[in-house]
């Protein structure tokens, strides 16, 4: 016995054309068939970077130090990957950064087939958000690691509880 609510939803028929709830704009050939097939939004300016990062980081701006990593394609459209790394040390560690950026580079190449894609990075800490010693040390270390590994850095930002600034665009 089926309920009226169950009867209202048609079973997905063998003929996909009979399915009334189309999947336009979605890929339906894999386990992530509910994800849009197009990138998120373009990052064409430093203001776009902050408009993207600040709401994304949200209340974590008031938390412990963290490094947030986002990916963009070759046209600087955001890709559906954001990696917040908590418990980040105040002083950057080059071995850690090399390992991290190597993994992110591999995701760009192997998962998104975007070898010309890049990274948007944010140094997040409660008292940060500007050109402080901590943020500038991290920006320099991130740029050095990216140069060693041939990874494009689209932007580096400093995000704090009360302010945010793009350090490198």
Going by CATH, the homologous superfamily would be Cytidine Deaminase, domain 2
Report the CATH architecture: 3-Layer(aba) Sandwich
How many E-type strands? 5
Q: Output mean pLDDT.
A: 86
Structural class call reads: alpha+beta
Q: If strands are numbered along the chain, what order do they take across the biggest sheet?
A: 2-1-3-4-5
Helix and strand pattern: HHEEHEHEE
Biggest sheet: strands, sense, closure?
5 strands, mixed
Estimate percent helicity: 25-40%
Overview features:
Cytidine Deaminase, domain 2; 169 residues; alpha+beta
Task: Summarize the structure in words.
Helix content is 31%, strand content 21%. The protein has one domain: Cytidine Deaminase, domain 2 (3-Layer(aba) Sandwich). Helix 3 (94-111) packs across helix 4. Strands 2-1-3-4-5 form a five-stranded mixed β-sheet, with helices on both faces. It is globular, with a radius of gyration of 20 Å. With 169 residues, it is α+β, with helices and mostly antiparallel strands. The chain is built from four helices and five strands, in the order ααββαβαββ. A hairpin with a 5-residue loop joins strand 1 (66-72) and strand 2.
